[in-house]
Amino acid sequence: ERRRAEDPVGGGCDRGDRARDAPTFAVSSAMDRVLQYNFGYLPPRAGLASDLPLSHLAAEILGPRSKKMKTAAGADARNGAGQKAALERRCVNYVRVLSAEMVQAANSGHPGAPMGCAPMAHVLWSGVMSYDPADPEWINRDRFVLSNGHACALLYSMLHLTGYGVSIDDLKQFRQLDSITPGHPENGVTPGVEVSTGPLGQGISNGVGLAMAQAHLGATFNREGFSLIDNFTYVICGDGCMQEGISSEACSLAGHLQLGRLIVLYDDNKIQIDGATSLAFSEDVGKRYEAYGWQVITVHDGDNSLESLRIAIERAQSDLYRPTLLRISTTIGFGSAKQGTAGVHGAPLGHADLATLKSSFGFDEAQFFAVPSDVQAAYRAAGAAGTAKHASWKALLGEYAAAHPALAAEFERRRAGELPAGWREALASLEWDKPLATRQSSQLVLNKLCEVVPELVGGSADLTPSNLTKFKGAADFQAASPEGRYIRFGVREHAMAALCNGMHAYGMLRPFCATFLNFFGYAAGAVRVSALSHFGVLYIATHDSIGLGEDGPTHQPVEALVNLRATPNLLTLRPADANEVVGAYMVAMERPKTPAVIALSRQGCANLAGSRAEAVARGAYVLRQAAGGPPQLVLVGTGSEVQTLEQAVPLLEGVRVQLVSMPCCELFDSQPREYKHEVLPPGVPVLAMEALAAEGWCKYAHSVIGMRSFGCSAPAKEVQKRFGFTADNAALRARELLQHYANKPAPDLLDRPDN
244, 493, 666, 690: which one is catalytic? Predict the structure, then answer.
């Protein structure tokens, strides 16, 4: 059992202890160990491509120094090692076959990468990683991320073979409707899948987030003699992940944070869809990663040399001060007639090629999805060994609870996903005595939340003074202080969101991150993955409209909310005042499986009479009832425009006006029709105002004051006046709307069969 305490706070270890967590592999001589540790295997040359240790190769070339070396015991040892090596090669080759069979059965998919990466997967799953197929949620399991998610046939093969809840029938249903083996990995669908991958670069970036979560939780909970959280994160990725900019952002930060328990296995097969990677990708990836502060190790024969892979991983594990990139040369589609070409990337091999592949590897070409008993036994034994490790960890947890009962109770609360008692009451206690920009209200709410919810961790993309996300007493998460809860993401918006996905996927943490609303456009790919993955990340988006003023149209996010509101399982909240900011955070915190974007103003917002934190959960509510009878007009808005509409009400003398705040369209859409008709009564004209794109408001309003162009650079009040976001213009447009419907009822926009 390699889980042991490293120091009193669990944050790291001195260099003298660095190797003690590494697994031990059989090497035939001390000299081999020294040579392999310091230099690895040299590039294969004629007559030297071999899995055998260097000393054995030297003996073959130079001849034995003495006939006495050839003892019976030595022969027996070689026979035993040979049998084990033969079984391992058989296991690897069967993984290649099984992955290719899945793609062939579906007549769709990507066989090349699984066949090339099978040796890596075998080494990881057969002896390196700690995992428990009987409990895929074990908190201290090693995390595995398949960043090149199109190679998912490889992952599903390993999950089945090692005993997860993925049956052979599930493999036969690869890429079919309602199967648990979809075309790219999806967490929550397949047991053992940590994160949803497929958009290249996302997975490796999630891996950095997973490693950050381990470092933080280890520093928070580990104590001398009790290393509860000390897992490694392993990522397999390909050339596409290396080319995507998000991976550069994430891996740069990983090097800065010295995430030594992050190990990336780079499938350097030099092929992509268009052909050779040399068509578009000629940089030295290893030098780039060395510049990031990573350890870089090259494995020249990733097709055959399992021992080289093991030695490389051992070296990676022994350096807890640097993340490691293993640059592994492989052949895409190894064993296929199309190996080494783009033709094997994204299409089935074809029955003839698959039959030849099976035959060449020693399997019956007529059998499909028939796992050989020796292969099955080998992998199930590996899974059982992981279950035993989990049992040992549970015993350690019991001892920890006896020695540190308060920490253990907090550990279990977080593991169960329960929020601390009294967190809502803490927010409700906040009082507001002056108008504040909603970003300022957010700062106070976030401070209170972080005080009572210690699993909240996060930061800003180099906009802390503008986003106002630094909470009182927060220490920075740095290499020397991973217990810190405030993360300096740097100007890396896309990676920032993906790192938060990884931290959420780890468990026991609730991550948040922040930038200007406009720059969430950079992060959009990862925000979409948050929604797809059901990761309840909190996205804090300040400077939320043309009201930011002088920075101009490059920073004014006119189209941003349309994009966000169109994303399934994503809440977009734009609070109008401090009370609604409280309600927005309450909504976000209560939904751990739904990410939320909280859009906040730069400019001040009055505290509105009638605003209520609890009303935000309904999406929209009546802020001010019409006086003197049923309403003749509804004014509805979000964010800072609600106060403008409130100022317009007295200008509409003689008109019975109902004022509505709609902080979250998605929540309002989920309400019963009866409630929606209370807020937007049938037959009553509705005028909406939002200082962003007008698109989308036609679902609720008969007329919209919104943006139909980019903004401009000027002081905020001048920009607002230029585009009509004033009380006077609201009153003018309202009277025009009433005149339009003077002799006919306004249509009930909610009266639709799908509403």
Answer: 493
